[in-house]
């Protein structure tokens, strides 16, 4: 099953809407609540990153019996140094975004801690693509 | 202990989301950084914060938190309140600051 959501740049009043919708679907699919938490934390952080940093983007969530595969694709500006972006506490967020309590440089770490797999591809001037995989079966 | 059981003792204002007053409280989490709460607050916690915007409710709902307490007499933004009503997350208020609020809640919960 595939679910798609559009993410608007800079619109914090809608940040979390995709995660919230997808959470409801996962509940209906009877996914284990602890696994739902991990999926939702990962998706929310990715979603907020698009709102805060990108010029807009979309989220594509594919669910099968074994895993949830999420692609977060934005249309730029891209991340010049992914290793740096992955460092806890590193953030390029604006003062306004920080005042709201975002931009503490914890987002990507939260995704890494909750996902079974995280792949980041980025090209400056083109965009960033996050692939986040969470397995549905506890090992 | 449920959210409604701490209202009188902590002298809290109920701004909205009162459908959630029967949520069971498992503890508290004090933070103004949203990703910190997203990453570390467990379900059933009461979130103590000075953030008054709508994203607080998004996180509280995604993490199944019991309620939010706004400190220092702060009031929720209109869209935060609307979202709280929709999600059934109680938004409570206190005149105390974070340190005092956290301490009082901690003492209540360890009894």
Description:
The complex is a heterodimer of chains A (139) and B (111). Chain A is 37% helix and 27% strand. Chain A has 5 helices and 5 strands, in the order E-H-H-E-E-H-H-H-E-E. Chain A has a 5-stranded antiparallel β-sheet, with helices on one face. The mean pLDDT of chain A is 96. Chain B is an alpha/beta fold and 111 residues long. Chain B contains 4 helices and 5 strands, in the order E-E-H-E-H-E-H-E-H. A 5-stranded mixed β-sheet of chain B has the order 1-5-4-3-2, with helices on both faces. In chain B, helix 2 packs parallel to helix 3 (78-87). Classes of the chains: A alpha+beta (139), B alpha/beta (111). The interface between A and B is medium-sized, with 23 and 19 residues.
Entry summary:
Chain A has 139 residues and is an alpha+beta fold.
Give keywords:
heterodimer, A: 139 residues, alpha+beta, Heat Shock Protein 90, 5-stranded antiparallel β-sheet, 27% strand, globular, B: 111 residues, alpha/beta, Udp-n-acetylmuramoylalanyl-d-glutamate--2,6- Diaminopimelate Ligase, Chain: A, domain 1, 4 helices, 34% helix
Low-confidence segments of chain B: none
| Low-confidence regions of chain A | none
Tally of separate domains of chain A: 1
- Distance from first to last alpha carbon of chain B: 10 Å
The first-level CATH class of chain A is given as Alpha Beta
Q: Kindly give the count of domains of chain B.
A: 1
> Whole-number radius of gyration of chain A?
14 Å
CATH homologous superfamily assignment of chain B:
HprK N-terminal domain-like
Largest beta-sheet details of chain A: 5 strands, antiparallel
The main sheet of chain B orders its strands as 1-5-4-3-2
Assign the CATH topology of chain B.
Answer: Udp-n-acetylmuramoylalanyl-d-glutamate--2,6- Diaminopimelate Ligase, Chain: A, domain 1
How many extended strands of chain A?
A: 5
Helix share of residues of chain A?
A: 25-40%
Largest sheet of chain B: 5 strands, mixed
Per CATH, the architecture of chain A is 2-Layer Sandwich
CATH architecture of chain B: 3-Layer(aba) Sandwich
Q: Report the helical percentage of chain B.
A: 25-40%
What is the CA-atom radius of gyration of chain B, in angstroms?
12 Å
Oligomerization category of the chains in this entry = heterodimer
The third-level CATH topology of chain A is Heat Shock Protein 90
Report strand % of chain B: 15-25%
């Amino acid at each position: 099953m595939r679910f798609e959501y559009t993410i608007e740049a800079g619109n914090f009043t809608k940040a979390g809407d995709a995660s919230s919708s997808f959470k409801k679907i996962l509940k209906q699919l009877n996914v284990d609540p602890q696994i739902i938490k991990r999926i939702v934390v990962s998706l929310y952080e990715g979603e907020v990153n698009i709102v805060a940093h990108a010029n807009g983007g979309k989220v594509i969530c594919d669910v099968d019996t074994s895993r949830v595969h999420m692609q977060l694709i934005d249309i730029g500006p891209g991340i010049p140094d992914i290793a740096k972006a992955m460092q806890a506490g590193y953030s390029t967020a604006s003062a306004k975004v920080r005042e709201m309590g975002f931009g503490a440089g914890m987002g990507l770490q939260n995704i890494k801690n909750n996902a079974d797999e995280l792949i980041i591809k980025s090209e400056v001037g083109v965009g960033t693509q996050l692939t986040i995989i969470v397995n549905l079966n506890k090992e | 202990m449920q959210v409604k059981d701490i209202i009188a003792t902590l002298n809290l204002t109920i701004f909205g989301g009162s459908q959630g007053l029967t949520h069971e409280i498992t503890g508290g989490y004090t933070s103004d950084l949203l990703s910190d709460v997203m990453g570390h607050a467990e379900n059933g916690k009461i979130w103590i914060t000075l953030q008054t915007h709508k994203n607080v409710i998004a996180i509280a709902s995604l993490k199944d938190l019991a309620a939010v307490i706004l400190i220092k007499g702060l009031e929720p933004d209109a869209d935060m309140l609307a979202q709280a009503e929709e999600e059934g997350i109680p938004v409570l208020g206190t005149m105390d600051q974070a340190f005092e609020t956290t301490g009082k809640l901690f003492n209540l919960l360890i009894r």
